[in-house]
Design brief:
This protein folds into 3 domains: 60 residues, Arc Repressor Mutant, subunit A (Orthogonal Bundle); 171 residues, Chloramphenicol Acetyltransferase, CATH 3.30.559; 231 residues, 2-Layer Sandwich (Chloramphenicol Acetyltransferase). It has 568 residues and is α+β, with helices and mostly antiparallel strands. A hairpin with a 5-residue loop joins strand 15 and strand 16. Helix content is 35%, strand content 18%.
Length: 568
C-alpha cells in the first residue's frame, strides 16, 4: 500500500518497449549511451560492448531488428568530410560560446537574475546520504568535466567561455528531522522552490549547486540545480549517473570506474564555430528563410488584457492526463499516416492552437538534440537546438490532413536542424526588443516511455517559471496513459483559463480519435475558451495522482517514518 508519505517504488521498465520503434536511430543510440552501451560497425556486423547484465534478450532482439539502420547510420558517420569531423581542437585563444549559449547569455545579460533557465532536479533517496562522500563525488566530477568549471564573459562585443583550472561548490545540508512528519513535505517543497529560484552568476563557475534535505533518518532528498547554459536533459542523466557511480565507489572505498573523456564541450564549441564560419550550414539556413517567408509576426493568443511590454519569467502549470484508450487510438491514426506519436500529438496541439487563437498559419517550437554523433553521447554540455514547425491549416482540413502536413514539416525540420536558432533569428532580422519570443511563442515537448530508476524518485522541484507564453509538455507512461501539463506565463494567463483550455484539449483529443476524417476540425473560434472561463469557477487543477516515474511528472509523496514500507 502507498501512503501519503511513503511512495511505492517505481517499476523498472525495459529499455525495449512497444514505443521504442518510434525513436530515431540517433535517439536510440543516445539511450544506449546513457546505459554505457557502445556500438561499432565492423564488416557489416555490429560490435556491442555493454556492462554485465545490461544486454538482455529484449535488447538483443531490438538491436537485431535495427541492425540495418544502425549500420547505415554508423557507416554514414565514417564518411563525414574531414572538415566536419568532431575531434579535439586546438585551444589557441578564446573559446567561443555556441549559438545556444549566446542566446541564454543574452537573456541573462538583459534580465539579470532571471531564473527561467535554471534546471532544478530533486530526488528522494531511500537512504541517508553521507555528506563527506557526496562532496568528494561532486569534487571529482567538477574536476573531470571542463564544462562544470566553465564561466561566460563578454569583452568588446566578443562572447566567450573560460575554463577554470579548478572550481568548487559546497554541498549544502538542511536537517528537517526536528519537524513533525506532516510538516516535512511542505517545508521541503518550499525550501526546494526557494533554492530553485536562486540565480546564477554566469561569470563565476561552477554553475551547479548540490544540496541535501534530510527528512527522516532513512529519507534524503538530493537537490541539484544547474544552469541550462552548460547542460541539457542528457547531460543531467550523465551527471546523475556519474555522481552515483562515484558515491557508491567511494562508499565502498574503491576508485570510481568512469569512461574516459577524449573530448570536452569546448571542443564541440570550437568545432561548431568552425562549421558556421566556413559556411557549411548555408544551405540549411536558406531552407529556413524560404520556409518561414511570409510567416505572421506572432501567434496572437487571446489574453484577458493587453500583452505586457516587459517579459516576466513567472509561470505555473496545469496538469493533465490523456487516457490510455485515447492515446492508443491517436497513435494508431498517426501510424496509418506514417507519423510518430510526437508528430501526431504535435498535430493535435496545432489544432488546439488554431481553435484558441483563430489563426491558421503559425509556428510551434520544439527542442531537438544535437547529439547526433557518437562522440557527444557521454559529454556534459548544452547540445540542444530549437526548431520551428510551421503549420498552415486549411479550414477544410481533416485531422489526418494535418497529421500528414505536420509529419512533412517535422521531417524537413529534422534534416535542417543544425542551424542554431540564434543564427536563424539574426538572419531573419526579428525584433529582439519585442516582448514576444521570435518565430514562435508556444512550445511543444514529448517524451517517450523512459526507464524508471528504482533507486530514487524524482521530487517536485518546479521553480515557478515559464519560458514561453504557453507550452504543452507530454510524457508517455508505461501504464499506457500520457501525463503532462500546460505551462503558462502568469502575467498573461489566469489559471482558470488554462484549466479550461486543458479540459478542452482532452475533449479535442477524444473528438480527433473518434473522427479523424472529419473536415474543418480547426474551425471553432477561440471565444469558446473565454465563454467557458466566464461561466466557470474552477478550483486549481489537481496534479495526476497515478504513481509513475516520468520526465515531466513530479512525485509529491516523500518521507515516511517507517522505511520498511518502501517495498511492496
Amino acid at each position: 500500500m502507498k501512503s501519503e508519505l511513503n511512495p511505492e517504488r517505481p517499476s523498472t521498465d525495459s529499455l525495449v518497449s512497444r514505443d521504442l520503434p518510434e525513436l530515431t536511430t540517433a535517439e536510440f543510440l543516445a539511450r544506449l549511451g546513457r546505459m554505457n552501451i557502445q556500438i561499432q560497425a565492423h564488416d557489416e556486423h555490429l560490435a556491442v560492448n555493454a556492462p554485465t547484465g545490461v544486454l538482455d534478450e529484449q535488447l538483443r532482439a531490438e538491436l537485431k531488428r535495427r541492425k540495418v539502420d544502425l549500420l547505415t547510420w554508423l557507416d554514414a558517420a565514417k564518411k563525414i568530410p574531414p572538415n566536419s569531423l568532431l575531434v579535439p581542437m586546438k585551444r589557441a585563444g578564446r573559446i567561443p560560446m555556441t549559438a545556444s549559449q549566446q542566446g541564454m547569455w543574452l537573456i541573462d545579460h538583459f534580465d539579470p537574475g532571471n531564473v527561467a533557465y535554471n534546471i532544478p532536479e530533486a530526488f528522494l533517496f531511500h537512504a541517508s546520504l553521507d555528506l563527506e562522500i557526496l562532496q568528494r563525488s561532486v569534487d571529482l566530477l567538477i574536476a573531470r568535466h571542463e564544462i562544470l568549471r566553465t564561466s561566460f564573459h563578454e569583452e568588446d562585443g566578443d562572447l566567450y567561455q573560460e575554463i577554470a583550472t579548478e572550481a568548487h561548490t559546497e554541498v549544502g545540508f538542511t536537517d528537517l528531522r526536528s519537524l513533525a512528519e506532516a510538516e516535512v513535505v511542505s517545508r521541503c517543497r518550499a525550501l526546494i522552490r526557494e533554492h530553485a529560484q536562486q540565480s546564477f552568476d554566469l561569470r563565476r563557475a561552477p554553475l551547479v549547486r548540490v544540496h541535501i534535505f534530510r527528512g527522516t533518518p532513512e529519507r534524503d532528498v538530493l537537490f541539484i540545480n544547474i544552469h541550462h547554459i552548460i547542460a541539457d536533459l542528457q547531460a543531467l542523466f550523465i551527471l546523475r549517473e556519474e555522481l552515483m557511480t562515484c558515491y557508491k565507489a567511494f562508499a565502498a572505498k574503491m576508485t570510481p570506474d568512469l569512461p574516459g573523456l577524449s573530448l570536452h564541450f569546448a571542443d564541440y564549441a570550437l568545432w561548431a564555430d568552425q562549421q558556421l564560419r566556413e559556411g557549411l550550414m548555408d544551405n540549411q539556413l536558406q531552407y529556413w528563410k524560404d520556409k518561414l517567408a511570409g510567416l505572421p509576426p506572432f501567434l496572437d493568443l487571446p489574453t484577458s488584457g493587453a500583452y505586457p511590454e516587459n517579459r516576466s519569467a513567472g509561470g505555473a502549470k496545469v496538469a493533465l492526463v490523456i487516457p490510455a484508450p485515447v492515446r492508443s487510438s491517436l497513435t494508431r491514426i498517426g501510424r496509418d499516416c506514417g507519423a510518430t506519436p510526437f508528430m501526431t500529438f504535435l498535430a493535435a496541439f496545432a489544432v488546439l492552437m488554431a481553435r484558441f487563437s483563430g489563426q491558421h498559419d503559425f509556428c510551434i517550437g520544439s527542442p531537438v538534440t544535437q547529439r547526433t554523433r557518437v562522440e557527444t553521447q557521454r559529454m556534459i554540455g548544452l547540445f540542444m537546438n530549437l526548431v520551428a514547425f510551421r503549420v498552415q491549416i486549411d479550414p477544410q482540413h481533416s485531422f489526418r490532413d494535418i497529421v500528414q502536413q505536420v509529419r512533412r514539416a517535422a521531417l524537413e525540420a529534422y534534416e535542417h536542424r543544425d542551424v542554431p536558432f540564434q543564427t536563424l533569428v539574426r538572419a531573419l532580422r526579428f525584433n529582439r526588443r519585442s516582448p514576444r519570443t521570435p518565430i514562435f511563442q508556444v512550445m511543444f515537448g514529448f517524451a517517450p516511455v523512459s526507464v524508471a530508476d528504482p533507486t530514487y524518485w524524482q521530487f517536485d522541484s518546479d521553480p515557478g517559471t515559464a519560458r514561453y507564453d504557453l507550452s504543452l509538455l507530454l510524457n508517455e507512461s508505461a501504464d499506457g496513459s500520457i501525463y503532462g501539463y500546460l505551462e503558462y506565463r502568469t502575467d498573461i494567463f489566469k489559471e482558470a483559463e488554462i484549466a479550461v483550455l486543458s479540459g478542452q484539449f482532452l475533449d479535442l483529443l477524444q473528438e480527433l480519435a473518434d473522427n479523424p476524417d472529419l473536415s474543418g476540425i480547426a474551425k471553432p473560434p477561440a471565444d469558446e475558451v473565454k465563454a467557458a472561463v466566464a461561466e466557470s469557477e474552477l478550483p486549481p487543477a489537481a496534479p495526476p495522482t497515478a504513481p509513475r516515474s516520468t520526465l515531466f511528472g513530479r512525485i509529491s509523496n516523500v518521507f515516511s517514518a517507517n522505511p520498511n514500507k518502501q517495498k511492496r
